[in-house]
Hints:
This protein is of the alpha+beta class and 453 residues long. The chain is built from 12 helices and 18 strands. The longest helix has 33 residues, at 315-347. Helix 4 crosses helix 5 (177-183). The relative contact order is 0.11. It folds into 2 domains: 19-326, no CATH class; 403-453, no CATH class.
Amino acid sequence: MSKGVVFTILLAGILVVSTVSPAWAAQMEAQINPNISESKFKVNYQKTVFIEYPNGGQIYDQLRTQEWTLAGEADSSDPGVQKLIDALNAKIQSDGSQARISDLNVLYDIHLKGRNLNTSVDYKIIIKGTLTDYVISKDQIKTLIDLGWRGLSTNESIVVDGVEINHPISTLRDQEPEVFNILSGTEAESILAKNIIDADFIAQQNMNNWHFLFDPTGINVDAGGFGLDESIAGFVVSHWTMGESSIREGRQVERVFEAEVAADQTYTIRSVQSADAANLSAIGFGALDTLEGVQIAGMTPTAPEGFATTSTGEFPVLIVYGMAGMAAIGGIAFFVFSNRQLKNQETAQTGIDPSRLTGYATSSSAGGYQTNRGEAQLMDAGDYQQTRNVYEAESPQQAPPASVSYEEEAACGCAASAEMGSECDCEMQGSCLCDATCKCNAELCKEHSGSMS
């Protein structure tokens, strides 16, 4: 594959990825100061809607070349923003919290982008507000603050600058009426009617499952020299973070709703939101508790004496030691199993039973010497065809020559060395001590035996 082709593929991938916006749900940021009456917060709501038309059709003709953006910003002087403040306060009260939103600023951005296979509509709503009445009680040691206001949600229709910002179906109705007419009355309409301003999942997650971290920077003597905010001077700061998908916090996945619409063609409508996330900070050291079903935090200027945990509880420590213990148990089990296998291999009987073998000599004499060589063979021929030497068929062994009986050997004087196989070495010795009965084939012995007969 040429470099030009590779470059083209990479560039196409980058372009495709760049056209897809992230589909985050509610993202909350809040900083609570228990020493004053009001604190700031910010929530970012996002949702992406995909309208897919792989087979073309009327929606394809209407949207494939379309691209437009609706964006604006408004404060609490706008009737729609004031309606949103009232709706959020009503939801906070229904959740049992005493906190209230006193001021709010709303920024919205809706962007439609048409393509050949699908159209995406990205919805972004950002609210920045002021929270009050969150202090429950206060004494010289501890301040109790209300944390039950986290579910900032509403299902009401919110119109800001003439734009309905809380329900995707309303935008399509106002901006793309032909598309709305095709989707109206179908399952897709119910999906697109779900509210965007929704942070209920943040309220439902118990804060005892959030990650906790306290920052003692504010109590450092030199902290002021690093531009530290005066509001936290002399205090530690507690941080709670939600958003991790884990065993402790629970599995968090994207929320995807999908429906097919059968019209002139089959269209697929998908609404995508990822899991919510939140970061909540409070000045002082926070200890979580519950009051009448509402989560609260007891804030003190410094951490308790001896407190050195900088993350949620002892969960990470338990996990580390638990994994180490499991690894040790696994290692011991592995060595025990390996040792047993090794012993089984050492004691296992393989091959032919030695009790069925017998030995015989294979060496022959050479001069005046004989070696002690031998081979083993089966005592019976039951398995001989399976155990015989593979070369035997080609070069069969010759049976050793029959030995001369002792009675015959006694007639030859040179047979005194019969056990050494040198009874016929007379010619090498130059003499023969044989009588007429000697059967030695040496010429010297034959002459000697003939002269004696």
